[in-house]
Structures are given as structure tokens and as C-alpha cells.
């Protein structure tokens, strides 16, 4: 079943085409990432899908319905975490979450369970205005998920989180997805997209450049493999290994590029040069560079 269907969506702010002909489909139960640098149009696209903005043109269907104008049938089925959350500043974290829960007829007890899931039990009695950026972000995620929606939208959910909190949130999102919920998130982080997402839409300048599984995106790359060995061996010994292209010495090791990694690894083994070997195939960063001609800067 299709959860989201977006066809030729466009939105301009004045002269700026923030969303410029985006088409996407998301299946029920899928985990999809929209990946791109600042200003790529990720948030604008998400807001159109969520029904928070009206598109200039194009169509959006969410769970078989149009999200715009605000569609009350859809609201309980969706959970939306925005980049900038507005809380009731004088409420405590627990009160804030219970207030959100009550809007969906979810019990206070279930709301409190969410404080635990996002690691905010110790901050339950802290006023929202006194939470750190990362804590506020986790609270906003709990508010988006407290009613157990079928479809979850998260806008850069790990942006303000420390590495441990980021890992914890990844686990939480994987759990939700494995329980059958559809998840769509935007992110700057390549590793996040690669780790979490079934499919990734790479966005730049209002357009979706590619939309595929991380593995297929990388496989489609026409990039050589890089093999690094520990510093030390004479560069000439490495240059003559069959299949080796460039050889570059760096402080961390000597980097060999090749289009025949198996041949090179065999040659290195025969010469007893495998010390500290690391093999780097393409990453989504390479895919971005390949598609745009620009380095990816999150
Ligand atoms: N309300 C607005 N009015 C005018 N321009 C806007 C508005 N919202 C966004 N933009 C512009 O539209 C473009 C796309 O913005 P958007 O927030 O969708 O990108 P993004 O990929 O989510 O970026 P980021 O990763 O920085 O959040 C940017 O150039 C931004 O400056």
C-alpha cells in the first residue's frame, strides 16, 4: 500500500523555487530519508506533505487523502515533529507531553512512558523553557509520537543531540518502524540516512536528484575503491601491485585507488603488505559529489 504519493510538487517563496518539481512515493511501513544540504528544500517538501503549506502546483496524497486544506481525518494518523517546536514554556516536560497526549485522548500514563523512552524522566518536572536544546528536541519527538501514529514525520530529529542521544533515538525510530509505522525524516547526516533508511531521496536546490536504497545509490556510482594500508611500505612496491591506480601517502596510511579491488588485495597479500588494510567503497557523500559536482557540506 502507498502511504505517500507526491507528484510534481512545486513551491516558490517569491523568486526562490524552494521545491521544484518533486515526485516521491513512500510505501506503508517504509523508512524514507530526505537528505540534502542547508536550503535544499527538505523542510519545505515535508511541510507540503504534512499539509502545513499549500503547494503552488502538484499533488500530494497521504494515506489516500489530500493533506491540504488541513484534513482532520489525517491528523490523528500522523505524527509531526517540526524543526522549531513551540512549547508552552511554563509547563514542565511531563505536563507538556500530557497536554499533547490529551489532545489525542491518550492517557497520562502512556504519555509518561514516552518520557522514559526519550530519556527525559529526570527532567519530568523541569519547565520546558529550561530544557537544553537536545532535551527539548527529544520532548518534541515524544510529543509527535505519543499517539502512536501510523505515519511519522521528523524534521532533522537528531540535529541537536549528542552522539549517545542520537544512537538512542535511532534505536527508538528503528523500533517504531519495525512495529509497522511509516517513517519519513529529513537529515543532513549521510550516516544517519545510510543506517536508518530503506530509501533515500537526495535533494539539492529544490529537486530530488535520486531516490533509491542507499546500496543502489552507491552501486550506481562510477567511483573507484580506495584501499588504505598502514604507512611504511615503499610507494614503489605498492605501485607495481597489479590493478593499483593512484598511490598517495597520507599521515594515516597509504591510499591506493583501484577499479579491481580483489586483484589488488590478492597482490597485497602475496607481498605481505596487508598490514592495517581498510577498504573504502563509495558513500552517499560520493554520490552527492557525483550528482552535483560539489562536495557535500552538511
Ligand atoms: N518562509 C520562507 N520564506 C522565504 N524563503 C524561505 C522560507 N522557508 C524557506 N525558505 C528558503 O527556501 C529554501 C529551502 O528551504 P528549506 O527550509 O525547505 O530547506 P532545507 O533543506 O530544509 O534546509 P535546512 O537543512 O537548512 O533546514 C531556502 O533557500 C530557504 O532560505
Automatic annotation (TrEMBL):
<dbReference type="InterPro" id="IPR027417">
    <property type="entry name" value="P-loop_NTPase"/>
</dbReference>
<dbReference type="InterPro" id="IPR017871">
    <property type="entry name" value="ABC_transporter-like_CS"/>
</dbReference>
<dbReference type="GO" id="GO:0016887">
    <property type="term" value="F:ATP hydrolysis activity"/>
</dbReference>
<dbReference type="InterPro" id="IPR003439">
    <property type="entry name" value="ABC_transporter-like_ATP-bd"/>
</dbReference>
<dbReference type="InterPro" id="IPR050763">
    <property type="entry name" value="ABC_transporter_ATP-binding"/>
</dbReference>
<keyword id="KW-0472">Membrane</keyword>
<keyword id="KW-0813">Transport</keyword>
<keyword id="KW-0067">ATP-binding</keyword>
<dbReference type="Pfam" id="PF00005">
    <property type="entry name" value="ABC_tran"/>
</dbReference>
<dbReference type="GO" id="GO:0005524">
    <property type="term" value="F:ATP binding"/>
</dbReference>
<feature type="domain" description="ABC transporter">
    <location>
        <begin position="4"/>
        <end position="230"/>
    </location>
</feature>
<dbReference type="GO" id="GO:0005886">
    <property type="term" value="C:plasma membrane"/>
</dbReference>
<keyword id="KW-1278">Translocase</keyword>
<keyword id="KW-0547">Nucleotide-binding</keyword>
<keyword id="KW-0046">Antibiotic resistance</keyword>
<protein>
    <submittedName>
        <fullName>ABC-2 type transport system ATP-binding protein</fullName>
    </submittedName>
</protein>
<dbReference type="InterPro" id="IPR003593">
    <property type="entry name" value="AAA+_ATPase"/>
</dbReference>
<keyword id="KW-1003">Cell membrane</keyword>
<dbReference type="GO" id="GO:0046677">
    <property type="term" value="P:response to antibiotic"/>
</dbReference>
